[in-house]
Amino acid sequence: MKFLRIKAIAKKELIQIWRDPFSLAMVFVMPVMLLFIFGYAITLDVNNLTTIVYDLDRSSSSRELVAKFSESGYFTIIEHIDDDKDIDKYLDSGKARIAIAIPADFSKNITTGKNPQLQVIIDGSDSNTATIAMGYISAISELYSQRLKGIKITPVIDPRVRVWYNPELKSRNFIIPGLIAVIMAIIAALLTSLTFAREWERGTMEQLISTPVKGPELITGKLIPYFLIGFIDMAVAVLIGTIIFDVPLRGNIFLLMAVSSVFLFGGLSLGILISIVAKSQLVASQMSMVITFLPSFLLSGFMYPIANMPAILQIITHVIPARYFVAILKGIFLKGSILKLLAMDVLLLLIFGLIVFTVANRKFKKRVI
Amino acid sequence: MKANNIAVKVEGVSRKFGDFVAVDNISLSVNKGEIFGFLGPNGAGKSTTIRMLCGLLTPTSGSGFVGGYDIIKEYEEIKKDIGYMSQKFSLYDDLTVEENIDFFSGVYRVPKEKKKKRMEWVLEMAGLNERRNAITKILPGGFKQRLALGCAILHEPPIIFLDEPTSGVDPISRRNFWKLIYDMSREGTTVFVTTHYMEEAEYCDRLALIYRGKIIAEGTPNDLKQNYMSRDVLEIDVDRVVEAMEVLYRNGIETAIFGSLLHATVENAEQEIPGIKRILEGLNITVNKIEKIIPSLEDVFVTLIEVA
Question: Which of A111, A334, B19, B271 qualifies as a FRET site for A232, CA 20 to 30 Å off?
Answer without folding.
Answer: A334
